[in-house]
Design goal:
homodimer; about 550 residues; alpha/beta; eight-stranded mixed beta sheet; seven-stranded mixed beta sheet
Chain lengths: ~550, ~550
Amino acid sequence: MNARRRAQLPPELVFLPLGGTGEIGMNCYCYGSGPADERHWLMVDLGVKFGEETDPGIDVVLPDVGFISAEKSRLHGLVLTHAHEDHLGAVAWLWPQLECPVYCTPFAAQILALKLKEAGLDEQVPVKVMPVGSRFKLGPFELEFVSVTHSIPEPTALLIETPEGRVLHSGDWKIDRTPVLGQGMDEKRLREIGAKGVDVLICDSTNVLREGFSPSEADVAARIAAIVSQATGRVAVTTFASHLDRIATSIRAARACGREVVIAGRAMRNTIEAARACGMLNDSGRLLDEEEFGYLPPDKVMLLCTGSQGEPRAAIARIAEDQHPHVSLEEGDLVIFSSKTIPGNEKEVSRVLNNLAELDIDVITSEDDLVHSSGHPRQGELAMLYDWVKPKALIPMHGEPRHLRAHREFAHGKGIRDVLIPRDGHITRLAPGPLDHIDEAPCGRLHVDGKLIVPSEDGPAKQRRKLSYVGIVFVSLVITAKSELAADIELIADGLPMGLEDDLIEAAEKAFGSTPKPRRKDVNALAESIRTSVRRAADIAWGKKPIVKVSVTQL
Amino acid sequence: MNARRRAQLPPELVFLPLGGTGEIGMNCYCYGSGPADERHWLMVDLGVKFGEETDPGIDVVLPDVGFISAEKSRLHGLVLTHAHEDHLGAVAWLWPQLECPVYCTPFAAQILALKLKEAGLDEQVPVKVMPVGSRFKLGPFELEFVSVTHSIPEPTALLIETPEGRVLHSGDWKIDRTPVLGQGMDEKRLREIGAKGVDVLICDSTNVLREGFSPSEADVAARIAAIVSQATGRVAVTTFASHLDRIATSIRAARACGREVVIAGRAMRNTIEAARACGMLNDSGRLLDEEEFGYLPPDKVMLLCTGSQGEPRAAIARIAEDQHPHVSLEEGDLVIFSSKTIPGNEKEVSRVLNNLAELDIDVITSEDDLVHSSGHPRQGELAMLYDWVKPKALIPMHGEPRHLRAHREFAHGKGIRDVLIPRDGHITRLAPGPLDHIDEAPCGRLHVDGKLIVPSEDGPAKQRRKLSYVGIVFVSLVITAKSELAADIELIADGLPMGLEDDLIEAAEKAFGSTPKPRRKDVNALAESIRTSVRRAADIAWGKKPIVKVSVTQL
């Protein structure tokens, strides 16, 4: 492109999600500033999503950042709004493709450091620690971490100012006037930002279907304290490993009635260590190890543990199966699920609740009492933020399609007419306005399989899903130069019902007998004939067609 | 056992669940009468449970009735309380093990006949059709089908009288004073039964965690009629295929505003045909086929369809993906989910709701309006049935462990002190009382895999689950009589990331080179050495150890 043409392209501020639209998790958003042919880029958040049962053997899913990786000479940095896995968990996997500095608050930096160390990247990644409230400049992007409230320490919204416009990227937030820890929602600053004018609010939609206001962490703390004070046996509290407010609340409730606190679960220990390294949770006294649980009287102990989502290897699941090496609970003890069940985890949570019921252990969940409050804004809170920030336009983020659409309706109802719902890979012009879908970028998702990053489309998980339905049969033949069998046909099946082998070998032998003998080295037709015969025989005997692989060795 | 000893054993009435305790589905209960060494048996219900994702490739799970099959000379019959899959769906699979007459109401007989025909058993199984309210005798068992209300036509509770005692087996029920179809709850007869004395009530626990009374079908009908009357575009109603009340309600709502009714979904068509064969639903007029949907004006059509649980191949899922061959919906149309999401199906239902949102189709679910009511009793209904029947003892059935335990607490609170929760395989003495766990019988579950019945423990599903996590590698070697390679080592991998083959072949070659040459025909040590080397190489490169199968052919 020549200089004259280039000069004609107008500077604009654009938004490009590479993950996180229309699903929960895997947040990854890019902002571009400048003319279309030489945009300067900023990335906000780089999170994972957990694998689904439809992709067996895949625990972690990553956004494909190939597009921005190709532009990395003009990528000025990655900014993390907070330390949840779905906003930060992919950094250690994908940073080698980006090689840019990473900006985050002290708590997020602690959590990230652990992950980078595990990945052997701690010496390489330049992590810039910015306190909540900081302003800093990356290329054309003037940025500010604005304090909000959420379910993890140091949650921030990100103010993004470029020559073309001003955007408030909400991150994950709620309005909690009485948080247990932290600086709280910076209403004053948000109102100032609103007074100066906000072109676009990119906004959390998770709880848009719920009316009213979320209960405060202080309300939850009061209920948990009351419940613990009335308990006569052992008390276990399970919550999200990163939910430091809830951890602090539980510890205070325990201390108030003279209970020691035992921590179970590595992720929760990591949270507590990261918090203490940042000067938080220093009033919580000595926290005990699992090994000490059994030595304490029932009314003098609280267990704080992981597993609120029914994770089968987490502490509470193992306790519920009476399989935990150090902790056991019995009739008269109480487990508080200080959490909500994330959609998709219902069966796993239900299994734990049922196992606890079989042990006659009492359980209180957020369906029974106010022992949890979400970290995302309900309608009342959304309306309040709109009022403070007064955005000209809105992009609903963080939610499934029905949440994004409901958020659009809600914003329309509140007088925000310019609302657009982009998908991953859509490039939206934010300013100069109105919102406009102007281009597309390649995007997608990657699977973490073992320690490798593999394709999600037509990758190994898809092959394994097929294996999981129909199993596999391996047939090997050795034939002479004259194309006669040099040994018996060998057949190995895996994942098929017992007793089918004879039928399948017979089918292979018949196919061998009835297929024209291969010319030297051209065994493909023979292999294919055997493959289809064995599949057909399986279908007749079993009603399913397994994967069949045939190996023909010609001597 | 000699005659003298036999004479000493007292006659008793016992209860033996072979499926259905502590989980939803797979109901199968046996009652025994007489002395322990020559019990006469009756089976009540024989249902399936749907397969879970942890058992890939398994759609249907059956109770193992091996114990009662061995006693079939004294099995007097199988009685079905109603036609739901979890009470009747296993008959066509397991009847060949039982070979006893089957007793059920006319509607259940229609549904069963379809299944028996598909299984080629329709000529063999003696099905005895008994109207609701019938009394009949099977060996020592005097039985009566008592009319109750539920979410399918002709639901019954079963009164079981033997010389030893009287039991009311509730089946699935609720108290609906204004059902849309059917005879309704026979309160008068239940009170009479109570007045005569009931030793044990075996009772539905599904909704024991819910206070108050279930809304009536008539309340749901009124809301659906109101919603449909206000709709301006196309309306689709999705509900359980067997829920004839809801089908009738939807058809009436459509007729009231001049809408034609199109049926989509084979299972729903079967329900309607079965109902009409029993003289029900005859006022519903002509129901149209899917092909006719597209020719009708939007405000003159209602689609009644399957898929309320998010089943990916059902009508509403395909419509939501805009992939249905005959039906498409668009902005301004309305879908009513006249159902609740059965635990475990949340993700699938959510996917359908999101796809509909992406098409800007309005959706009303039971979370938004009274478009569904459960067919199971809440606390108020349970208390009412206790009051009518006045059982001396209670066995909570139909529910997960936490429901069964909550039901025990609830019954205690209502003054029923003798409550026992048996597990599958427990033999409980019901009379003479009190309830007592006296013995155990073998029990378990079976998988339907393709068209075969296979073991659930260590069966093919377990092998396939393993395959689905780690994939499989086949290695085949051909060696000469002198144990030298006669051809290159062949390696086929399935379900592994690309690019590992070279490492794995190299590992196999090294293992071959370093393993002592096998003596004639003893190739096991060589195969094992190659297997472990290939697994280790995969673990190093990938971080996972695949299943490795090695075939060594010695010429």
